[in-house]
Amino acid sequence: MPRPREFDEDRVILAIRDEFWDKGYAATSMDDLLRVSRLGKGSLYGAFGDKRSLFLRVLRDYDDANLLMLRKSLESAARGIGVVREFVLGPTDDPTGAVARRGCLLANSNAELASSTPDVAVEARRSYDAITTILTAALERAQREGDLDPDLDPAETARAALVAQLGLIALGRTGTDVDVLTTVAQSALARLLPTPAQ
């Protein structure tokens, strides 16, 4: 019978996630992971496997949490159009620019690893496809609610909204001023989400 774990798994995963998020995969050493997890090597390996396995676990948990949050946002939103606006404007939320400079763990990881680590590319596609599906549902709802041109293709527009957000994330990582990012985001939204012709 295996012994119960003597550590808070959620705390460990969050600490490790933040280390990967701040430094990137390649720059994060096993010593870094041991330090932030406060676990011994045997405990860390025994619970989560090697660095690659641990990273993929952290990335999937991060993606699943974000997808759940986006689904809940759609369920609770007063208007479907608001979900898409909030999604695109997300990288501009913090007036200090700290959130924008940190970027998104998935986008950062995809840029760093997708060409060399097929598992990361697969995870990125899974997450981006799920995001597109949720945004498509939000846009279809916006059309039913009369907030969006009925001739617009919701799936194409959802993909364009995702691309716009990823572009804002990339710009934010360069240290682009948040006011500039906000202006760019609002300009993109004005083009992506035309209202019905009067």
Can you describe what's shown?
By secondary structure, this protein is mainly alpha-helical. It folds into two domains: 1-49, Arc Repressor Mutant, subunit A; 57-192, Orthogonal Bundle (Tetracycline Repressor, domain 2). The protein is built from ten helices and no strands. The chain has helices at 9-23, 30-37, 41-48, 51-76, 80-89, 98-102, 105-113, 118-144, 154-173, 178-192. Helix 5 runs parallel beside helix 9. It is elongated. It starts with 8 loop residues before the first helix and ends in a 6-residue tail after the last helix. 28% of the residues are buried.
Number of helices: 10
% residues in beta strands: under 5%
Order of helices and strands: HHHHHHHHHH
Radius of gyration: 19 Å
Number of domains: 2
Query: What's the CATH C level of the largest domain?
Result: Mainly Alpha
What is the CATH topology assignment of the largest domain? Answer: Tetracycline Repressor, domain 2
CATH architecture of the largest domain: Orthogonal Bundle
Query: Rough shape?
Result: elongated
Helical residue percent band: over 70%
Distance between the termini: 69 Å
Major beta sheet, specifics?
none
CATH superfamily of the largest domain: Tetracycline Repressor, domain 2
Low-confidence stretches: none
Quickly give the structural class.
Answer: mainly alpha
* Average pLDDT rating: 93
Number of strands: 0
Quaternary state of this entry equals single chain
